[in-house]
């Protein structure tokens, strides 16, 4: 049975939202993780997003989504997963390049592979121009959110793709890394971001082919 989050820094609504989130996660990961691990992941996620979220009401939701990803990663490390390949896209702010890569990967893989993203200095929101140019090709990344990475997320990935995070990118011996030299879209208009978007799509398609994952959509018609 999960706790009720007796913390002085939470409102009643936030207490209830986190308690409900803990219950959902406990049901999803029944037999894999206990209440203590689930609540710890929720608490640490909440704390990490607390200084970033534009709207405090969204904090429990962000904490739940991040905790779910971390629990899936931990299950993978412990040898309890569905066997799908996992790719982790990393950049500095997790607001532009890595979010577009994640959007393309999920769209093209059609659930046959898993993708995550993170940033060394994650931003408070996704780059609006990145959202706009991805919408032009029929992919909605507006519901995503910038997030950090954690040790278990990196360890669980089969491939780690880095885009500009430099020395801040986590390095684990034996892990497959790819460093994509792709321009940062921060502060650029749509006419500059579209070529970045198209280059990321090209690279994602090559990566999926290399992983043996058939794509669910044909090449771009634009």
Automatic annotation (TrEMBL):
Q: Which InterPro entries match?
A: Phosphatase-like_N, Ptyr_pPase, Ptyr_pPase_sf
Instruction: Give the GO molecular function terms.
Output: arsenate reductase (thioredoxin) activity
EC assignment: the record states 1.20.4.4
A Pfam family this chain is assigned to: Phosphatase-like_N
Q: Which SMART domains match?
A: LMWPc (SM00226)
Q: Which residues form the Phosphotyrosine protein phosphatase I domain?
A: 85-210
Q: Which UniProt keywords apply?
A: Arsenical resistance, Oxidoreductase
PANTHER family, A to Z: ARSENATE REDUCTASE (PTHR43428)
- Which NCBIfam families does the record match to this protein? MSMEG_6209_Nter (NF046112)
Q: What is this protein called?
A: Arsenate reductase ArsC
Top-down, what is the taxonomic lineage of the species of origin? Bacteria, Bacillati, Actinomycetota, Actinomycetes, Streptosporangiales
